[in-house]
Amino acid sequence: MLNNHQSFINEHSVSTHLHRAERQAAHTQPSPRTPAEHYNTNPKLVMHQNITPHPQRLVKQQADSPHILIIGAGVIGLVTAWALLDKGYKVTVLSKGWANVGQNHGDRLTSQIAGALWEFPPAVCGSHVDAVSLEYSKHWCMTAYWAWKEIADDAGLSREAGCKKLLNKMREIAGSGVEGFRHTGAKLAEERGVNPKYEGGIMDGYELSVPVIDTDQAMHWLTNLVLAKGATMTTRTIETDLLLVEQDLRNEFHADAIVNATGLYGGALSGDDSCSPLRGALLRVVNDGTAFPKVNAALSISADVSEDNEIIFIVPRTDNILLIGGIAQDNQWDLDLTLDTPVVQRMRERANEFLPGLKNAKLDPAYPLAQGLRPARSKNVRVERELRRVDESSEPSRIVHCYGHGGSGWSLSFGCAADVIDLLDEAIEGKEPEAMNYRI
User: Fold this and answer.
1) What positions does the entry give for D-dopa binding (predicted)?
2) pTM, to two decimals
């Protein structure tokens, strides 16, 4: 199914977006060194070339194939495992929990709570501002775009993996090669039934065709795919700095290297105190065309780190459910939001004002409110080898970190996995590690 994703900019956020463009021109607009089309060239992971969505591996595992221990079983850990398995590696995934598709909604992983609408950086939650991380993210997201698009374009895979396409900043997106880009300004609001006077008036808007993922279905599919390709899965909780237990873990699992893909806990396992939760929530309403005209397009207004504007995030799922968001609350660890919590009520009120038809929307009785903790990091996404050593005489660590994705784990997954593989190969070869800012 091919639909549209519209991103609207109202009068208030036009000023903040323009202001952000002036302050952060190095990473919000392509420079002569990195034109927009540059982000779409030579992806390291290409579906059906060096990764396949089918159970059979592209490269058979050999007796001397490297063995990688991946800690974490969210979308980042599983996609990384998938890519390694198709490269012929032996993979063990170690996690304290696994994707749950049962009725106990409270046990879902953060990757299952995500809205999972592909976005060109920065994400709608406004949490990605580091120039180095953003430069990487624009490459990562395009690798993931084409991978998820291949899945969405295959009717059978699309149904199985829960991935379809919807028609979603501007100059970079237009030149990136994504499909369906259309910039018609405020006219889009009228086309999509949006209140043109929302928060002072809709002033601009654009649309494009992007993948949107049913995260419960996709996590179930990813887990089964990785198992079918031969991964071993072990349940365990690791709470210690990995550098201190690296050799013990490698000895126990006969692993050549370790990947830290533990999301929110990635910092605790790497001596990095820049990680914190960014609490989010989504209302789930019935989207069957009965109470209001069925919404077939994703709609959004991004948050901005320099202002106090809140998120508009409206995304249709594949099961007649519409997700309504959102919020981005920094350093909030508790998952204690309810339908009566003021911030949740304001979220619903904003959506009703933005898209008036939603006033009649009925909550999904089985699962009305989803909430989770985005794995935020002040320096944003970290895809990097461990730079520390146990002591001055020790060999370079063989740990590769991949965490801090905030609200962009699904959008960056395949791109990050490709870089992780390169870093693992360097670590196994005994090369000295380099910081992210030196590799860009």
Assistant:
1) 374, 407
2) 0.86
